[in-house]
Design a protein that fits this description.
heterodimer; A: about 170 residues; mainly alpha; 6 helices; B: 17 strands
């Protein structure tokens, strides 16, 4: 009896793991889309309002969903504290603090931190070019992920279920 | 009352810690100058002091704190909110205005394009000039500027740092609010350098009265026309008239039947009358009152009040 219960648990766990990872793909796309939205808002704040970065981040936090809004808020508040850190460091710390355990991949975090290295440097055109560059890369990444999303979800879910069944058979 | 934290927080950590080590009366603080590899100078209660190596203010240079290039960079980052791009136009003019209407003058290496200053790099000199709001400082001049319901077109003439902006600010406040003898009226302010209202995120930090509309960071000539079209002011106020291009805005204000309050750099009425803009304004008898402030040390001391013909009608 216990063996059968173990087998069922194994199958449920395998399937759960599969569904968890497939949902994580979806969450990554949602986060990247949120970041793309943030970049567009930031472009607007800089080109239309010519706002400094802390004000721009604080101003757009209400228009973004969590955790992107948390990120914008974190950058703005830390910059306003004037603790002697360069902006790149403030930005990078906020990336780690907010997105470390999120669905974003390490490469996504690196690209986002790299954006912070270039923000605030030189003139307004430079800011817009940097944001355009990051935005285009994000857009490409999102499109590719969206194309692959259904198949990757299916693979994860199938692998999870099949893995669970396989382990259950082994145990049985 | 000036907020000390608002002022000290714009400085690099090393300067900030020394400034805050001893309590200062921030209402008596007028200037803080940072020059790379030079002592930090502070104008406090009418005298020049050195910022001490161990904090506080010192009379002797050998005990002073020397600003590093790094201090200037850090301070500039705080002033601009890590975003010098947002102050391109201000940098071209050589100053930035911060929260509270305080002005930070900058100097460094200019980048020229087509004979004009395009931008500034290697900024190594900063000069923070603190704006002081002195309620009631215009009391002695108000009877000369406002009579019953009428307000005279008035020009305040003074050398730099003698209180003309402070005086204009209080005149605007009093005209806008009114009192038991005179009703308040709508005042439109074109605050090109954000010094009069000291707008922060669109909200004036200085009290300009309850009937005052502020067009912040806008060119005077264009701003005066915009205000006339949009806000229907009875009085228009501008700080630091200078270039001939301001004339168009001034003429529009006068021809619309509005009254004009303005300031101009100068030592005397004769001194400013020789300038191209003032020559035209004098010929057309645009102003009915000239308030001339005394130079040298003390701020806000009147040398004399003149009528539109240049006759002295009041003493300081």
């Amino acid at each position: 009896m216990m063996r059968w219960i173990g087998c069922v648990m194994m199958m449920i766990s395998g399937a759960g793991l599969g569904f968890y990872y497939s949902a994580r793909f979806g969450r990554r796309v949602a986060l990247l889309t949120g970041l793309y939205q943030m970049v567009n808002l930031l472009k607007g704040e800089i080109s239309y309002g010519s706002r400094p970065l802390p004000e721009a981040f604080l101003g757009m936090k209400g228009k973004l969903k969590a955790p992107i809004s948390d990120f914008a808020c974190c950058v703005a508040l830390e910059a306003q504290r004037r603790q002697g850190k360069p902006f790149a460091e403030i930005f990078s710390c906020a990336v780690q603090k907010v997105f470390k355990d999120s669905a974003l991949k390490e490469s996504d975090l690196e690209a986002l931190s790299d954006l912070g290295n270039h923000l605030g440097y030189l003139d307004r055109q430079m800011q817009l070019r940097v944001l355009d560059f990051y935005g285009h890369n994000l857009q490409d990444c999102i499109q590719e992920l969206r194309r692959e999303l259904p198949s990757q979800k299916k693979v994860c879910q199938s692998l999870g279920v099949m893995g669970g069944v396989f382990l259950a058979i082994l145990l049985a | 009352m000036l907020e000390s934290a608002q002022i000290t927080s714009i400085f690099a950590g090393s300067v900030r810690s020394r400034l805050t080590r001893e309590p200062l009366d921030y209402d008596g603080l007028y200037e803080i100058r940072l020059r790379a590899e030079r002592p930090v100078l502070v104008v406090y209660q009418g005298k020049e002091w050195f910022l001490g190596e161990k904090g506080g203010l010192e009379r002797e240079e050998r005990r002073s704190y020397t600003a590093r290039k790094e201090d200037i960079r850090e301070t500039l980052e705080y002033i601009a909110g890590y975003s010098l791009y947002a102050f391109e136009e201000e940098l071209r003019q050589g100053f930035l205005t911060i929260q509270g209407g305080h002005r930070v003058g900058v100097a460094g290496k200019t980048v020229m394009e087509g004979g004009k200053v395009q931008s500034m790099t290697d900024i190594s000199f900063l000069n923070l000039r603190l704006a002081h709001e002195k309620r009631g400082c215009a009391d002695p001049v108000m009877p000369w500027v406002r009579q019953k319901e009428d307000i005279y077109d008035t020009l305040i003439i003074s050398p730099p740092r003698c209180g003309k902006t402070t005086l204009l600010r209080d005149m605007i406040r009093q005209i806008s609010n009114g009192d038991e003898k005179c009703a308040g009226c709508t005042v439109g302010v074109v605050d090109e350098r954000s010094e009069l209202a000291g707008c922060w995120q669109g909200v004036p930090q200085n009290d300009l009265g309850i009937r005052t509309d502020v067009l912040d960071a806008c060119k005077k000539a264009e701003g005066m026309l915009m205000l006339l079209r949009s806000m229907a002011p009875r009085v228009v106020a501008v700080d630091e008239l200078g270039p001939l291009e301001d004339l168009q805005g001034i003429e529009s204000v006068i021809h619309c039947g509005c009254r004009l309050l303005a300031t101009m750099h100068g030592n005397s009425l004769d001194d400013v009358r020789r300038r191209p803009l003032m020559e035209r304004l004098w010929r057309e008898r645009i102003f009915s009152r000239y308030l001339v402030l005394k130079g040298g040390g003390r701020a806000g001391v009147l040398e004399g009040i003149y009528d539109g013909e240049g006759r002295k009608i009041g003493e300081g």
